[in-house]
Amino acid sequence: MGYADNQIPVRIGTIEESIDLESPYQTVTERYYTPYYRVDEDRERRHDLCLLVHSNRVSLMCLAPSHPVIENNLEILEINCEITKTCNRKTNKAVGKGKKGGQNLDPTSILCYLETKEGQFPVEAVAPSKLICMNRIALDQPSLVRDKPDSTGHIAVLLPYLGHIEECKAGLLTKDQYEDLLNKEKS
C-alpha cells in the first residue's frame, strides 16, 4: 500500500484486478456511445438507421441491424456520396472547434447512397447537424458498412447542433424500444 501526497492510503493493484473479467468485453462504441434508432415508417421497406451519440455530441451514423443491407447480407458495390451535381459529401472540409466549413444537414438530408445489385439505398442524416467527415475506410471498403456497422463501418461522423440534440434524441428510439419493436414485428 502506498500513500498519496496528502497521506491518504492508496491501494495499487494489477490492471487485471481493476476490471471485471467475468463480464463480456464491450467494444468502444458499446462503452462510449449511446445508440438511437430511426425506424422507417414503411415497415415493408425498413430503411432503419442508427445514430451513435457520444457524451460530447459527436455522433456516428450507421445502419441499424434491421436495415435490408444487413438483414439480407447484400453486397455493397459502392458508397455514392454525390448527392447532386453540386453537392458531394466527399469534398466536405470541416475544420476548427466549431467545425467551420462542414456541410449543414437536416434530418432528411441524404448523406450517401449505398449501391447494391438489388438497388440503391439512401442514407439520411437523421439529426440536424454538421457533417464532420465521411468515413474514408468505409468508402474504400464498402462491405464494412454491412459487416461492422457500429464500429469501423460507420458511414459518417456528425456533430448535431447544440440546442437540437435532446429534441432529436426524443424523436428516435432507444435500444430497448428498438428491440421491443423488432420483437413485436417477429411475433
Notes on the structure:
- A hairpin with a 4-residue loop joins strand 4 and strand 5.
- The strands form three sheets. The chain has a six-stranded antiparallel beta sheet.
- The chain is globular and about 65 Å long.
- The protein has a single domain, classed as Beta Barrel (OB fold (Dihydrolipoamide Acetyltransferase, E2P)), CATH 2.40.50.100.
- By secondary structure, it is α+β, with helices and mostly antiparallel strands.
- It is built from seven helices and eleven strands.
Descriptors for this entry?
single chain, alpha+beta, 3-stranded antiparallel β-sheet, OB fold (Dihydrolipoamide Acetyltransferase, E2P), about 190 residues, about 30% strand, 6-stranded antiparallel β-sheet
Task: Encode the helix/strand succession as letters.
Answer: EEHHEEEHEEEEEHHEHH
CATH topology name, in short, is: OB fold (Dihydrolipoamide Acetyltransferase, E2P)
The top level CATH class name: Mainly Beta
- Tell me the strand percentage band: 25-35%
**Between the first and last Cα atoms, what is the distance in angstroms?**
57 Å
Q: Radius of gyration from the CA trace?
A: 20 Å
According to CATH, the homologous superfamily is: RNA polymerase II/Efflux pump adaptor protein, barrel-sandwich hybrid domain
Largest sheet composition: 6 strands, antiparallel
Percentage of residues in helical conformation: 10-25%
Specify the overall morphology.
globular
Q: Estimate the mean pLDDT confidence.
A: 85
Named CATH architecture:
Beta Barrel
According to DSSP, the number of beta strands is 11
Question: Helix- and strand-based class?
Answer: alpha+beta
